[in-house]
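Methods: example folding runs. The two proteins below were folded one after another, and each record is reproduced exactly as written to the output file, sequence line first and structure-token line second.
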Amino acid sequence: MRPECTEGAGGGGLLVPMAWMYAEYIADELLRTGDLMPPTTLEYRAGRDALALTIFLSDSSVGGARVVARMEEWRSLTAYGTCWREWVCGRLDRLEAASFESGRETRDPDLELAGAAWRWLEETELLAPDLDAVGPVCDDPSPAGEAEGPQVWTPAWQLGLPLGHLAIHLF
């Protein structure tokens, strides 16, 4: 879906980032349907942005009944062990290069919003359980403050990606 102009067919008006807004809407609906966490949390935002990037950067456009048909593709793109981060960076780089080569005077607003979402996912760190921590198994309760085990700071995308993947499964 291309950005749409708000002023007549001649262009020159404000470009509306319809493709990004639609991808973000679908991601939000998937996460709300899954009811995994309150929409006011940073973790929810991370899941929505990771899922919206996946939807936006997928090859073909999304619309109506095609959303259900694309679920398997999104599920495989967000699966554990995939090179999702590299896939996102590669797609964004190609889109930015194509936008630059087109010679347009203004930047693609969809691409700007997708880039801003990616920067937030990369630069923001959230405190999360350390899934790589290996400790002795015992019957003693965890020390105070570690009821959920050890925690580490991790980039937001590393939390958002599995959350988005789970939301797709629950849909």
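Second run, written to the same file directly after the first:
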Amino acid sequence: MLIGFMASGKTTVGELLAKKTGLPFVDIDRAIENEQQKSISAIFSESGEAYFRELEQKKLSEFKTNAAVISTGGGIITTEATRTFLQQHPATIIYLKTSPMIFLARLKGDETRPLAKNQTPEEIEKLFQSREAHYEAIASFSIETDSLSPLEIVSEIQTQLS
């Protein structure tokens, strides 16, 4: 299972890792969008973040955590209930650790992320800082991604898992 802040590469790396391992790939955000028939942004604006987090936890609980490569949303670790769920259901949880300089550059002009939309870089970095300790605490291990390509990250994950 891949965790990390928005724009850390969870989906890209997850798809590549799934291909390399032969495991199915699940993107929790995409699964929610498909089920709800609306974008994450629409869910946030219509029903709020708390409702989205409930959907996220419910969707996560539908998957056997080590039977697939799972890409989570950047905020999956924000609720106590989801952190407890992750700790109680054995899975290898990989934190894709990306520096603010990198994720801010990737987020520039991205209007699809409701918690980054209309936020200053300082506000986005503050959001990251409020989550960072949770990523670290819940992860089985972390990979510093700043200087690695997606394929190099996958290779590093495979090395750590072997």
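Comment on the second run: The helical segments are 10-21, 28-36, 40-47, 49-61, 80-88, 100-107, 121-138, 150-161.
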